[in-house]
Write a structure and sequence with these properties.
Blueprint (H helix, E strand, L loop, with lengths): L1 E5 L2 E4 L4 E5 L2 E4 L2 E3 L6 E5 L3 E5 L1 E3 L6 H11 L3 H15 L1 E9 L4 H8 L6 E8 L3 H8 L3 H15 L4 E4 L26 H15 L5 E4 L8 H11 L5 E3 L7 E2 L5 E2 L1 H9 L4 E4 L6 E7 L14 E8 L2 E10 L4 H16 L6 E2 L13 H9 L1 H8 L21 H15 L16 E5 L4 H4 L5 E4 L2 E5 L2 E2 L7 E2 L2
Parallel strand pairs: 1-6, 2-7, 8-9, 9-10, 10-11, 10-25, 11-12, 12-13, 13-16, 16-20
Antiparallel strand pairs: 1-4, 2-3, 4-5, 7-21, 14-15, 17-19, 18-19, 21-22, 22-23, 23-24
Helix pairs in contact: 5-6, 7-8, 8-9
């Protein structure tokens, strides 16, 4: 049945609408200018109507997610079912997994059917194989473009993710400046490889720009590689994943250099990032980064599992993020700094790199930190005592508005992923939205919307699922 939503305030960054009083009409699962003769009315008085969330970087499919489930002794099918329900409860309608190798795509699409209610897409994860590097080295633009097009065609992915570009072929990958050195056996640097792959993805017509898991993840000079990467990408669209893990410096041994990374992002409108905010507590880390993964033990992880892939390996381990840890405290502050210092909320997206930084169910609490300066400062005061000298978070006064929250959770990801029929409340868009009751406690407000609508159906009320079903595949 059609739906008419009345008396609500619309927050739709894709259309530049901020707290606009207007009715929403839903006809046959699509936002329209009117309803048919048979409709129900939802009274959204004292509520905000916001496009449903889209998580652009979460791991629920394929060998990375399955290996992580192995460490938690959770059945992968149950994990996916719970994830879909929890996303829906929070007002999300779509998730994108960028950790699926092309060889695992068929199985991953089968697994996607186990995720209820939310739509599912993927970014195909590729490694720097010798043939790929050879094409980039020879500036074989046509060959690289055909590789991208064939991968997207074979997998149904929205785009391509490149992991630790060329890192496997560096003689000293864990040193500052490695991204500017020639790969062993090749006449090309990681930075040159990144630029040529980004150009190939752009020329291929892929919906999403090149999705980058950068070099030097977690290193106390990682911000240098990140900024150099942004500089080499001038004029070419690219997305940097879990940027928090790539924004560290070496002041006092380990520090946040988020202000420098944020400035580089601000100066380059072709770049988008998702943050990969960490959450204090226990989690599982999973990566196909063959430079970082084998180093888990030295970084405090336990109980590692290695899964062989068609071209590489997936490394998983248990990890606890602790407030008492100087490193973890800096990581927590670094992520929030990126959110608050990147000026355009349409180019910085809410993620925890689930499960690597922590569970996606923490999104409402992260939003609360962004919207509440006092809450943020109180949490900062509980961190390791050295954090104040290693981060600028305590000096930042910016507080997010609901408009900015809608940008980082919905409108921004939809635009970057090329999902032009989502992330908006304009007529013609898919009717995915959440009706949030205004509350002084934003963590509660964003964890339990009054109503969640997916493709024109009410699927949740006040955090309770009221209708089940399977979402659709979001493909390239």
């Amino acid at each position: 049945m059609d739906i008419k939503i009345i008396n609500g305030e619309v927050v739709d960054p894709a259309q530049g609408e901020n707290l606009v009083w207007r009715d929403i009409y839903i006809r046959d699962g699509i936002i329209d200018k009117s309803t048919g003769p048979d409709f129900v009315t939802i009274n959204a008085e004292d509520c905000l109507i916001i496009p449903a969330g889209i998580d652009p970087h979460t791991h629920l499919l394929g060998p990375l997610a399955d290996s992580a489930s192995e460490l938690t002794s959770e059945n992968p099918e149950d994990m996916r079912k719970d994830a879909g329900l929890n996303y829906a409860r929070m007002g999300y309608a779509g998730v994108i997994d960028p950790g699926v190798p092309p060889a695992s795509a068929v199985d991953a699409w089968r697994e996607a059917k186990e995720i209820p209610l939310v739509d599912v897409g993927m970014i195909a994860m590729v490694v720097s194989s010798p043939p790929l590097i050879k094409m980039a080295e020879g500036k074989n633009t046509a060959g690289l473009r055909r590789f991208v097009e064939q991968t997207i065609n074979d997998t149904g992915a929205l785009g391509i993710k490149l992991v630790n570009p060329g890192g496997k072929f560096l003689d000293r990958p864990l040193e500052a400046g490695a991204v500017e050195r020639k790969l062993d056996g090749f006449n090309i640097t990681p930075l040159e490889l990144i630029r040529r792959m980004a150009e190939a993805v752009a020329e291929s017509g892929a919906k999403a720009p090149l999705h980058l898991h950068l070099n030097d993840l977690g290193a106390p000079w990682s911000h240098e590689a990140t900024i150099k990467t942004i500089e080499v990408l001038k004029g070419v669209r690219a997305h940097i994943a879990h940027a928090q893990f790539h924004s560290y410096g070496g002041r006092s041994g380990f520090s946040s250099e988020a202000p420098l990374v944020a400035r580089a992002v601000n100066e380059n409108p072709n770049i988008t990032i998702d943050v990969g905010q960490i959450v204090f507590g226990n989690t599982v880390t999973a990566t196909a980064d063959e430079t970082f993964g084998p180093d888990f033990g030295r970084r405090g992880a336990t109980g590692s599992v290695i899964t062989e892939l068609a071209d590489g390996a997936c490394h998983c381990a248990r990890y606890e993020y602790r407030r008492q840890s100087a490193v973890n405290s800096v990581q927590w502050a670094c992520g929030l700094e990126l959110f608050l210092l990147v000026e355009d909320p349409m180019r910085v997206f809410l993620t925890t790199d689930h499960p690597n930084g922590g569970p996606f169910t923490a999104y409402p609490n992260i939003i609360a930190m962004l919207m509440g300066g006092d809450l943020r400062r109180n949490e900062f005061s509980r961190l390791h005592e050295d954090t104040q000298n290693r981060s600028t978070l305590h000096t930042i006064n910016r507080e997010y508005t609901a408009y900015e929250v809608a940008s980082i959770t919905s409108a921004g990801p939809a635009k970057t992923l090329g999902l032009l029929d989502r992330g908006s409340l304009t007529p013609g868009a898919i009717a995915d939205m959440a009706v949030y009751r205004k509350s002084g406690k934003s963590s509660h407000m964003f964890s339990s919307p009054g109503v969640v609508i997916k493709s024109g159906r009410v699927i949740a009320r006040d955090g309770e699922i009221v209708k089940t079903g399977v979402g659709v595949r979001v493909t390239g």
